[in-house]
Every structure is written in C-alpha cells, then in structure tokens.
Design a protein that fits this description.
About 55% of the residues lie in helices and about 5% in strands. It has about 180 residues and is mainly alpha-helical. The chain has one domain. Strand 2 (about 70-75) and strand 3 form a beta hairpin. Bound molecules: zinc ion.
C-alpha cells in the first residue's frame, strides 16, 4: 500500500490531521516490517478506522497525578493522547506502544486484556513487541516483559503474537495444552 492509498483509506472514514496521519503511517510501517506475516497492512488500517475516532491528542502536562504514563490509548473513548514534550525517540517509542494497544483491540478483547482478566499480561506483551520493533535503553513494565520472555520458551513466539493481534483465547488454549510444563 502506498502512502497515498493509506491516507485515502483512512480519510474516507476519519477526518485526521497531517500530524496524526504521519504518526499512524510510521507506526504502521514499523509494525508490518516486523510482524507483517501476522497482521496485514489492510487489517491495521481497518483497525485504526474502527478503534481511533479523533486526532492524536497533545497533552502539555499530566494533571492527574495518578497517571504515571507518557501516553495512553483509551479503548472506551477510542482516543490516544501523548505527552507533547518528550524527546523525539522516546515519543516515537511511547506512541508505538499506545498504537499497538489501539490496533490489537477488538469487540471483546484488547490484546490479552479480556473480560477474564489479563491486563497486566497485556502491558507485558505490548511493551515486548514495542521493544522488538524499536529497541531502546528506556524500559517499561520490566517484570511483565520478562514474563512474556519466559512464556516464549514454552509457546512459540509467533503463536503468542498471533494471539495478541487476533484472539487472546488462542493463547489461553495453548497454555491449557502446555499445562504440565509449568
Ligand atoms: Zn500500555
């Protein structure tokens, strides 16, 4: 898909500005370069349209002291905000993490976060994938990422990533099968 095709598809459904389109294009290209066999570009575009309603929101500062994050994807509101004054490389990394939350969300799941739980595991896999695409010294969710790394020794990484993007129940089924190895 060319950049023009990408923008035309999104702009036919969403009225996004240039900055939002830039961020979405770059994150989409980074994601398919690494995981294009597991999730297609077309699928990512359709999830962007379904899961993001507004332009990326710039936050000047975090007013809510409970929010320790530098960015957040809100599935209920289908919005994504980013702290504006982050160093460029770190901004791109945080954006990619939030973008992965956005495109791994469906009707019933958001990545590994389901009605049965899994929110912590979801942060672990989201950050694990972010670091695969964009390795950086600044690490988030350390122990949760290590849990995902441990999981890859039991379940093939590709199955874990496929479950993240497509259906977390695939992961739970795999875990059930491998139960005797824990
Ligand atoms: Zn997150």
């Amino acid at each position: 898909m060319t950049r023009i095709e990408f923008e035309e598809k999104i702009l036919s459904k969403r009225n996004f500005n240039k900055k939002t389109l830039d961020l979405l294009w770059n994150a989409t290209q980074d994601t398919i370069k690494k995981f294009g066999k597991i999730i297609s570009e077309e699928e990512i575009v359709s999830r962007i349209i379904n899961n993001l309603r507004k332009n990326i929101i710039d936050k000047k500062e975090i007013i809510d002291r409970d929010v320790q994050s530098s960015g957040r994807y809100n599935l209920n509101e289908k919005t994504l905000w980013m702290l504006k004054k982050l160093p460029k490389e770190y901004y791109d990394k945080v954006f990619l993490h939030e973008f992965l939350h956005c495109i791994s969300s469906g009707e019933r799941y958001s990545g590994f976060a389901t009605e049965f739980g899994g929110a912590g595991l979801n942060e672990g896999i989201t950050e694990y994938l972010t670091q695969k695409i964009r390795p950086m010294d600044v690490k988030s969710y350390g122990i949760l990422v290590e849990i995902i790394e441990a999981l890859t020794t039991i379940i093939p990484e590709e199955k874990i990533i496929s479950a993240y993007f497509n259906d977390p129940l695939e992961l739970f089924d795999e875990l059930e099968e491998k139960r005797d190895q824990f």
